[in-house]
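Note to self: keep these together.
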Amino acid sequence: MKAWWIALVLIACGAPARGRIGYVVTATDDTPSGRAAVGRAIGAGDDVSGDGFVMRLDDAGRARVAATAGVAAVRPIAADEKLGKLPDTSPVSVRIDLYDDATPAELDAVAAWIAAHGGSVGAKAARSIDATIATSMLHALAETAEVRWIEALEAR
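Structure:
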Protein backbone atom coordinates (compact mmCIF):
# COMPACT_ATOMS: atom_id res chain seq x y z
CA MET A 1 0.00 0.00 0.00
CA LYS A 2 2.85 2.39 0.81
CA ALA A 3 4.29 2.12 -2.75
CA TRP A 4 0.89 3.03 -4.19
CA TRP A 5 0.78 6.27 -2.18
CA ILE A 6 4.33 7.15 -3.20
CA ALA A 7 3.46 6.60 -6.86
CA LEU A 8 0.35 8.76 -6.46
CA VAL A 9 2.37 11.58 -4.89
CA LEU A 10 4.97 11.36 -7.67
CA ILE A 11 2.30 11.54 -10.37
CA ALA A 12 0.39 14.33 -8.61
CA CYS A 13 3.60 16.36 -8.43
CA GLY A 14 4.46 15.59 -12.04
CA ALA A 15 7.66 13.74 -11.15
CA PRO A 16 8.72 10.94 -13.49
CA ALA A 17 8.11 7.44 -12.17
CA ARG A 18 11.38 5.76 -11.19
CA GLY A 19 13.35 8.33 -13.21
CA ARG A 20 11.99 7.20 -16.58
CA ILE A 21 10.39 9.55 -19.08
CA GLY A 22 9.13 9.22 -22.63
CA TYR A 23 11.41 9.89 -25.56
CA VAL A 24 11.11 9.94 -29.33
CA VAL A 25 14.06 8.23 -31.02
CA THR A 26 14.71 9.09 -34.66
CA ALA A 27 16.96 7.41 -37.23
CA THR A 28 19.65 9.01 -39.37
CA ASP A 29 18.39 6.92 -42.31
CA ASP A 30 14.76 8.01 -42.43
CA THR A 31 13.67 5.24 -44.79
CA PRO A 32 11.51 2.30 -43.72
CA SER A 33 14.54 -0.01 -43.79
CA GLY A 34 16.71 2.50 -41.90
CA ARG A 35 14.08 2.98 -39.21
CA ALA A 36 13.57 -0.80 -38.99
CA ALA A 37 17.32 -1.31 -38.46
CA VAL A 38 17.36 1.24 -35.65
CA GLY A 39 14.24 -0.32 -34.11
CA ARG A 40 15.96 -3.71 -34.02
CA ALA A 41 19.17 -2.22 -32.60
CA ILE A 42 17.41 -0.41 -29.75
CA GLY A 43 14.78 -3.08 -29.12
CA ALA A 44 11.80 -0.91 -30.05
CA GLY A 45 8.93 -1.68 -32.38
CA ASP A 46 6.77 1.37 -31.80
CA ASP A 47 7.63 3.43 -34.92
CA VAL A 48 4.94 6.08 -34.77
CA SER A 49 3.95 6.76 -38.38
CA GLY A 50 7.61 6.98 -39.36
CA ASP A 51 8.16 9.89 -36.97
CA GLY A 52 10.28 7.91 -34.54
CA PHE A 53 10.18 5.29 -31.84
CA VAL A 54 8.43 6.14 -28.58
CA MET A 55 10.24 4.68 -25.58
CA ARG A 56 10.34 5.30 -21.84
CA LEU A 57 13.93 5.43 -20.64
CA ASP A 58 15.99 6.34 -17.61
CA ASP A 59 19.19 8.38 -18.00
CA ALA A 60 21.37 5.30 -18.58
CA GLY A 61 18.94 3.91 -21.16
CA ARG A 62 18.80 7.26 -22.92
CA ALA A 63 22.60 7.39 -23.12
CA ARG A 64 22.73 3.80 -24.43
CA VAL A 65 20.11 4.46 -27.11
CA ALA A 66 21.71 7.79 -28.12
CA ALA A 67 25.06 6.02 -28.63
CA THR A 68 23.53 3.37 -30.92
CA ALA A 69 24.68 3.51 -34.53
CA GLY A 70 22.00 4.96 -36.78
CA VAL A 71 20.24 7.00 -34.08
CA ALA A 72 19.85 10.64 -35.09
CA ALA A 73 18.24 12.01 -31.93
CA VAL A 74 16.68 11.05 -28.61
CA ARG A 75 14.36 13.83 -27.45
CA PRO A 76 11.75 14.00 -24.71
CA ILE A 77 8.20 13.55 -25.95
CA ALA A 78 6.03 16.58 -25.26
CA ALA A 79 2.64 16.23 -23.59
CA ASP A 80 0.93 17.61 -26.72
CA GLU A 81 2.43 14.75 -28.74
CA LYS A 82 0.67 12.25 -26.46
CA LEU A 83 -2.80 13.61 -27.31
CA GLY A 84 -4.80 12.23 -30.21
CA LYS A 85 -7.66 14.09 -31.85
CA LEU A 86 -10.05 14.98 -29.07
CA PRO A 87 -13.49 16.60 -29.15
CA ASP A 88 -14.00 20.10 -27.78
CA THR A 89 -16.78 18.88 -25.48
CA SER A 90 -16.17 18.25 -21.82
CA PRO A 91 -16.07 15.85 -20.15
CA VAL A 92 -14.66 13.45 -22.72
CA SER A 93 -14.42 9.65 -22.72
CA VAL A 94 -10.86 8.60 -23.47
CA ARG A 95 -8.54 5.62 -23.60
CA ILE A 96 -5.26 6.24 -21.83
CA ASP A 97 -2.40 4.00 -22.93
CA LEU A 98 0.56 3.53 -20.63
CA TYR A 99 4.05 2.50 -21.68
CA ASP A 100 4.73 -1.20 -22.20
CA ASP A 101 6.85 -1.33 -19.04
CA ALA A 102 4.13 0.15 -16.82
CA THR A 103 3.55 -1.71 -13.58
CA PRO A 104 0.19 -2.51 -11.96
CA ALA A 105 1.03 0.09 -9.30
CA GLU A 106 1.53 2.74 -12.00
CA LEU A 107 -1.78 1.78 -13.60
CA ASP A 108 -3.49 2.17 -10.22
CA ALA A 109 -1.71 5.48 -9.61
CA VAL A 110 -2.90 6.89 -12.95
CA ALA A 111 -6.45 5.75 -12.13
CA ALA A 112 -6.13 7.49 -8.75
CA TRP A 113 -4.87 10.66 -10.48
CA ILE A 114 -7.93 10.64 -12.74
CA ALA A 115 -10.29 10.23 -9.78
CA ALA A 116 -8.46 12.91 -7.77
CA HIS A 117 -8.95 15.34 -10.65
CA GLY A 118 -12.70 14.79 -10.95
CA GLY A 119 -12.70 12.05 -13.57
CA SER A 120 -14.22 8.60 -13.47
CA VAL A 121 -12.39 5.41 -14.32
CA GLY A 122 -14.05 2.75 -16.45
CA ALA A 123 -12.45 -0.39 -17.82
CA LYS A 124 -8.82 -1.11 -16.99
CA ALA A 125 -6.52 -3.45 -18.90
CA ALA A 126 -2.88 -4.31 -18.27
CA ARG A 127 -1.60 -1.15 -19.95
CA SER A 128 -4.65 1.04 -20.55
CA ILE A 129 -7.51 2.79 -18.79
CA ASP A 130 -10.84 3.98 -20.16
CA ALA A 131 -11.98 7.09 -18.35
CA THR A 132 -14.21 10.13 -18.51
CA ILE A 133 -12.41 13.33 -17.60
CA ALA A 134 -12.65 17.08 -18.11
CA THR A 135 -10.98 18.15 -21.34
CA SER A 136 -9.09 20.79 -19.38
CA MET A 137 -7.27 18.05 -17.41
CA LEU A 138 -5.99 16.05 -20.40
CA HIS A 139 -2.78 18.03 -20.92
CA ALA A 140 -1.81 17.61 -17.26
CA LEU A 141 -2.56 13.89 -17.49
CA ALA A 142 -0.40 13.63 -20.64
CA GLU A 143 2.48 15.26 -18.74
CA THR A 144 2.74 12.28 -16.39
CA ALA A 145 5.61 9.88 -17.06
CA GLU A 146 3.36 6.82 -17.20
CA VAL A 147 1.06 8.04 -19.99
CA ARG A 148 2.10 7.21 -23.54
CA TRP A 149 -1.04 8.20 -25.50
CA ILE A 150 -4.57 9.56 -24.94
CA GLU A 151 -7.33 9.27 -27.52
CA ALA A 152 -11.08 9.74 -27.56
CA LEU A 153 -13.23 6.63 -27.33
CA GLU A 154 -15.62 6.18 -30.21
CA ALA A 155 -19.29 6.78 -29.40
CA ARG A 156 -21.04 3.41 -29.26
